[in-house]
């Protein structure tokens, strides 16, 4: 029969083991909660961001952009509008700014690439290719760099998937 010191040690060890298992369980639960919160936040940001694509101002921008037959025609019109300080130049820039903001959110972890790939995929690459001649004429090597990186990343992901 174990003496009282051995019994106390056994009970303390059992309590310590239960405490350790409880702490591990709590840590796992907390990490799941953090992940669920992150996913919920991304879903909320995604819904808001993609809702912006269909708001009145972006529809106005997309209609203006769609009026040009080719990326080069759009570039030429943008250059004319910008030189004349026409409102159309700033309306057109909304779309570029939209994609630059989307790319920034993805790059800094507020938005997962997988969500963008699911919702936009090839369309993102197509929009970048449409805008590329216009971006190139802006005279800055760094004009819309995040949009460019995101489009290239998407292009690579699409090429790998096929």
Structure description:
This protein has 162 residues and is mainly alpha-helical. 83% of the residues lie in helices and 0% in strands. It has 2 domains: 1-41; 54-161, no CATH class. The chain has helices at residues 4-53, 56-66, 71-83, 87-107, 113-119, 122-136, 145-161. It starts with a helix and ends with a helix.
In short:
With 162 residues, this protein is mainly alpha-helical. The protein has helices spanning 4-53, 56-66, 71-83, 87-107, 113-119, 122-136, 145-161. It folds into two domains: 1-41; 54-161, no CATH class.
Count of DSSP-assigned helices: 7
Q: Helix/strand/pairing class, anyone? A: mainly alpha
Strand content: under 5%
SSE sequence, one letter per element: HHHHHHH
Structural descriptors:
mainly alpha, single chain, 162 residues, rod-shaped
Itemize the secondary structure elements and their pairings.
Elements lengths: L3 H50 L2 H11 L4 H13 L3 H21 L5 H7 L2 H15 L8 H17 L1
Helix pairs in contact: 2-4, 3-4, 3-6, 4-7, 6-7
